[in-house]
Amino acid sequence: MKQLRVEADHPYTVHIGAGAFGLFANEYRPLLDAADRIVVIADEQVAELHLQYLLDFLKEWDVRVLTVPSGEAAKSVETFMACHSFLLSENCSRNSLLMAFGGGATGDVAGFVASTFMRGIPFIQLPTTILAHDSAVGGKTAINHELGKNMIGTFYQPKAVLYDSKLLETLPPGEVRSGMAEVIKHAFISNGTWLEELLAIRDFKDMAREELNQHLEKGIAVKAAIVEEDEFEGGVRKYLNFGHTLAHALEGHLGYGNITHGEAVVLGMSYALLLSEHEKLDDYIRWAHENGYPLHIVKDIRFDALLPYMKKDKKSSQGILNFVLLKQTGMPFVEKVEEQRARSAYEKLILQIEEVI
Ligand SMILES: NC(=O)c1ccc[n+]([C@@H]2O[C@H](COP(=O)([O-])OP(=O)(O)OC[C@H]3O[C@@H](n4cnc5c(N)ncnc54)[C@H](O)[C@@H]3O)[C@@H](O)[C@H]2O)c1
Ligand SMILES: O=C(O)C(=O)C[C@@H](O)[C@H](O)[C@H](O)COP(=O)(O)O
Ligand SMILES: [Zn+2]
Question: Which NCBIfam families does the entry mention (predicted)?
């Protein structure tokens, strides 16, 4: 089992490897024993597949479980309120402990609930997707608003992240693809050699489990280092938003859940690479196409439909667009981009994608 410390304001450890839940009865016993209630908020699909596995590790404690809608649908006011109602009906208090069991969507909403229930109770992230190597670390929590992705949320660090990689074996191919988007993002903003390795992958099915684990560990290390330097996103944390200005606009425009976050980020990164005039753009578009990312969708989406979302992006101010771009791989920076430049780059992107698909 690997572990990585995140030295945030409230430091914690990310444990990665099969059997990570065994730590409940060891390192985390004092935390669990101190809780007057333990509540697991679980993605309903994940619960069907893996809840019994989790509960077997929690046999010693009286655990209550609430299942929430699978995936992005959970990041809603309704689910947020349902979680609070459940905690209240179970007589939870400030001494209760919450666990988020699922992918990034479950982690985001459960983290938000933890940060707001009685103004904050401890929580543990139990991520079950590849993408969640990103979402479970760093303390961003959120639900969506019709007008913009993740618009309602907090910065609130978990007490621990227990990432049992065995659970990833049941991920459908589309979710593997989606999760690898954030791995590629971490490579783009940090390390050219690693990026080359990733761009050589033509089918994620060919990745051995050990190879995948190594990519996840590298991704978590990149994320943790940035979060340690700038937990509340005053500066360098913005680099973790590489590809996200367009991505969040696509998710908002298409309707949350109609494109996965990772698919949207892959498109968003192609746009950011084009704006960066990055030499890898063509290779990257080909790689994305061969790995089945739905690049074609932008052909039917006008720039004007996306612009209002991009103007509300959290890196923007007064409608001025700020993008994370790359001087070169591993050298991100934030740049103001005029509307006209953003528009013509988008049109050019569609042409480049059409050439490849
Ligand atoms: N907080 C952050 O820093 C951060 C970072 C990146 C992404 N996010 C957010 O994370 C969300 C995306 O997360 P995600 O990609 O993990 O998707 P997700 O949580 O929406 O889950 C995707 C699907 O995979 C299923 N699933 C989950 N684990 C499974 C397993 N082990 N086996 C089989 N099926 C499984 C779920 O039921 C769901 O249908 C987005 O809302 C995004 O905004 C947050
Ligand atoms: O941790 C961060 O910071 C990130 O930006 C990671 C992103 O992958 C993630 O999608 C995040 O939720 C986006 O945050 P937002 O502030 O743009 O909503
Ligand atoms: Zn993301």
Answer: aroB
Q: Which atom of ligand 1 is nearest to the CA of 44?
A: 37
Mutate which of 41, 46, 230 to test ligand 1's pocket (most atoms within 8 Å of Cβ)? 46
For 2-170, CATH number out of 3.40.50.1470, 3.40.50.200, 3.40.50.1970, 3.50.50.60 equals 3.40.50.1970
Is there an atom of ligand 2 within 6 Å of 37 CB?
A: no
DSSP symbol at 85: H
Residue 280 beta carbon below 6 angstroms from any ligand 2 atom: no
List all residues whose CB is within 6 A of at least one atom of ligand 1.
43, 45-46, 49, 70-72, 75, 102-106, 108, 128-129, 131-132, 134-135, 138, 140, 150, 167-168, 170-171, 175, 178-179, 182, 261-262
Query: Measured in angstroms, how far is the CA atom of residue 102 from the centroid of ligand 1?
Result: 7
Q: What is the pLDDT of residues 35-53, one digit of tens each?
A: 999 999 999 999 999 999 9
Within the chain, which residue ranges are assigned CATH 1.20.1090.10?
A: 174-207+231-356
Query: How is domain 174-207+231-356 classified at the architecture level of CATH?
Result: Up-down Bundle (1.20)
Give me the mean pLDDT over the 305-310 stretch: 98
d(CA 203, CA 230): 35
Determine whether the shortest distance from the Cβ of 148 to ligand 2 is under 6 A: no
CA distances for 67 relative to 6, 133, 311, angstroms: 29, 21, 35
Q: What is the pLDDT of residues 189-228, one digit of tens each?
A: 999 999 999 999 989 988 999 999 999 999 999 999 999 9
CB 50 within 8 Å of CB 128: yes
Q: Which protein residue's CA is at the shortest distance from atom 13 of ligand 2?
A: 241
Does this complex have an ipTM over 0.90? Answer: yes
Distance 212 CA to ligand 2 centre (A): 22
CB distance 315 to ligand 2 below 6 Å: no
Residues 300/292, Cβ–Cβ less than 8 Å: no
Question: What is the number of residues in the chain?
Answer: 357
Smallest CA-to-CA distance from 161 within 140, 201, 132 is with 132
Question: pLDDT at position 72, please?
Answer: 98
Token pair belonging to 173: 């191919």
